[in-house]
Amino acid sequence: MNPTTSEFHPLAPSVQSVFDTVTARDPHEPEFHQAVHEVLHSIAPVLEKHPEFVEAGVLERLVEPERQVMFRVPWIDDAGRLHVNRGYRIQFSSALGPYKGGLRFHPSVNLSIIKFLGFEQIFKNALTGQGIGGGKGGADFDPHGKSDAEVMRFCQSFMNELFRHIGEQTDVPAGDIGVGSREIGYMFGMYRKITNRHETGVLTGKGIGWGGAQVRTEATGYGAVFFAQEMLAVHGESLEGKRVAVSGSGNVAIYAIEKATQLGARAVTASDSSGYVVDESGIDLALLRQIKEVERGRIVEYARRRPGARFIEGGSVWETPVDVAIPAATQNELDFDSAETLVGNGVRVVVEGANMPTTPEAVEIFQRAGVLFAPGKAANAGGVATSALEMSQNASRQRWGFAESEQRLRDIMADVHHASFYAAERFDAPGDYVVGANCAAFERVASAMLAQGVI
Length: 455
Ligand code: NDP
Ligand code: 2IT
Prior knowledge:
By secondary structure, the protein is α/β, with parallel strands linked by helices. The chain has helices at residues 13-25, 30-42, 44-49, 51-55, 58-62, 111-127, 148-162, 181-195, 216-234, 251-262, 285-294, 300-305, 336-344, 360-368, 376-379, 381-396, 402-426, 433-451, and strands at 67-76, 82-93, 99-105, 134-139, 171-174, 243-246, 266-267, 269-272, 275-278, 310-313, 324-326, 349-351, 372-374. It is globular, with a radius of gyration of 21 Å.
């Protein structure tokens, strides 16, 4: 579900024409429009302070990807049948560094979704303070129910085209929905074979034994929880004793549950596209990981094996009364009705683990109700930030231990929080992390674009 263009709030005159150009040029990209609108809606005060950004056409350039690649991915299944999927890589902005961002394998993938993700990634990566530009890619391939051999053949075919567009100084992909260490392994192997180079830093999210960084697997979920901790600390509170609802049961969800639990909260939910489970005694992480990471099974299995846990088929996880909500599945999964339910049940903090999981109407409900709301481009930046740490370690042939890597992640999340929080104050929107994150990130990217000339 996405708002249609006519349902968006009006923008400041200085940015409305940019939005009109985007929607006229690519009318069938609702998720991309949604992501662009949210940024344009926030950054008017930055443009007032910096008329030179307007004169240099920074916005007009920023909403148009530097390069878009779409390609055929043919592969043969175990029964010998041919399939053809569509692959994408959107190289959105390299103003701050090589294009950086994940690959998503999911049947819903299309150009609009990859462009929205690539656009968000520009600002997220800027907020980390590291030298990484924004990009995203993927394919409309569904890994569910496929054998390892099928996934391997798909990944090899995908890399057979992608390799010519990436490189450790050019574009560095990683995981996202449907792409974890198994897929990164198959793609890295194919890249190495085709190029005859062991170019370790060309992909991140690698296995620990062959160039992967400690804490990259945990980083997005841990980082989102560290961000929640920072938000609560401003109000003299902590996660201790809080009830938490997490959606999804993939990479981000699992490690958000783990860190929230370690910090004294009780995570009571997990979900997948079939429904959700509620476990009042706190999610048993070992069981969840066994079902999801080892068996690649469905969430109903959790309720079957865990006494006291309930499975609600097709229901909304947001019906569960909690203090903290962490949407960690997919875009637009938390809508107006869910937001009203959460607010009615007394939610205090909403932290986006996923990219754009909250619809614009739902964000408005939270902000009007005084709920602390953290947008994904700030709260889930820990994943890509730790990818950049992996790139640094690969380039310098160093290896940092778990504790050191986790401390670096914690420091980066504190910096992202600080940058977002104070930008909101500077631009007259105290407490509004959406405005803060967008303004802080945009200032950094726009300054680089201005300095580097019209290209
Ligand atoms: P995974 O593939 O590991 O897990 C995705 C989870 O979300 C699964 O439980 C999946 O259920 C569920 N899900 C996915 N699509 C849908 C859908 N359309 N409807 C309902 N449930 C759905 O992905 P990640 O955990 O890596 O990613 C989750 C979110 O976090 C995404 O928005 C991603 O862009 C974002 N993100 C990920 C980062 C990372 O480092 N991995 C970094 C920053 C953001 P099912 O198996 O049934 O499909
Ligand atoms: O959305 C994201 O930030 C990711 N999927 C992680 C990207 C990365 O390059 O680690």
